[in-house]
Amino acid sequence: MMKRVEVAAGVIFRRDGRFLLGQRAPDTFYAGYWEFPGGKVEPGESPADALIRELDEELGIRVQGVRPWITREHRYEHAHVRLHFFEVAEWEGELHDHVHSALSWERVEAPEVGPMLPANGPILKALRLPRWMGITHAAEIGVQRQLAQLDAALAGGLRLVQVREPGMPMPELRAFAGEVVKRAHACGASVVVNGSVELAAEVGADGVHLPAAQLGALARRPELEWVGASCHTRAELERAAELGLDYAVLGAVQPTATHPGQPVLGWERFAELVRGLPMPVLALGGLRQNDVECARTAGAHGIAAIRASWDQS
């Protein structure tokens, strides 16, 4: 039986939003392939400590903070690896590479180097997932008001919208979802439709967002670019991972106006539930823009919100 090797890898960001990749040296497996910097976790060492040490040894940078992100496993012909990916939140120093043939700062939207090391390939899509998801509630506030708020949010940088309108009749929902897609795509934003693969495809949305109840009945991942799910338990999160979904939304982290009196997770429990998952997770429930740092420190990719996405006050 092949022994599993624990590896720590870092997504190192520059101030302009680009991230760092290194090209593997000629005397290594997969020579010439590109990867995220990092290395093996030594006995008695935590993955976070291993990454900080490796980045000092490989690149000569001093890391002040890392955020847990996602964990993926991959079987190579020579090793079974489990990669603990962290976002490198703070670092200082000048890069002096001691391991790779070359380094390159890449754009999240369209990396230009390749090929990627197989274990690292899925990470590129995860990095493309926006850090904030706006969830609609047009049935509550009115379609025209919601569309006006959508336009303002898109102008302000919102790049991921979930159309979630459980109380809206289908003809009205179809028209509303189509309008959201049109306006979002004009601004370079993506749209997922809650609960209906068919409607998502019909209106030209980028994907579907599945309620937790649909996870258990789903035999395989729908054939859309983006597929995510709402989750409330570790079992639901693991089912989303098993199906190969692109992301999950987990909550409620804090009390919400939508579900008053509902039990909440808090950040400590949120961090426990998302630890070791292979896909990014957005935090949901009573969160605002000033909660982003807490969310990402707890292992969240970002935040999903209803009211906070549209409140311009």
Automatic annotation (TrEMBL):
Broad class of enzyme this protein falls into: hydrolase
DNA repair found in the keyword field: yes
UniProt-listed SUPFAM superfamilies: Nudix (SSF55811), Thiamin phosphate synthase (SSF51391)
A GO term for molecular function: hydrolase activity
Cofactor(s) of this protein: Mg(2+)
Keyword DNA repair: yes
Reaction(s) this enzyme catalyzes, per UniProt: 8-oxo-GTP + H2O = 8-oxo-GMP + diphosphate + H(+); 8-oxo-dGTP + H2O = 8-oxo-dGMP + diphosphate + H(+)
PROSITE patterns: NUDIX, NUDIX_BOX
InterPro entries: Aldolase_TIM (IPR013785), Mutator_MutT (IPR003561), MutT-like (IPR047127), Nudix_hydrolase (IPR020476), NUDIX_hydrolase-like_dom_sf (IPR015797), NUDIX_hydrolase_CS (IPR020084), NUDIX_hydrolase_dom (IPR000086), ThiamineP_synth_sf (IPR036206)
Assigned EC number: 3.6.1.55
All residue ranges annotated as the Nudix hydrolase domain in the record: 3-131
Keywords annotated in UniProt: DNA damage, DNA repair, DNA replication, Hydrolase, Magnesium, Metal-binding, Mutator protein
Pfam family, one: NUDIX
Family, similarity comment: Belongs to the Nudix hydrolase family.
Protein name as annotated: 8-oxo-dGTP diphosphatase
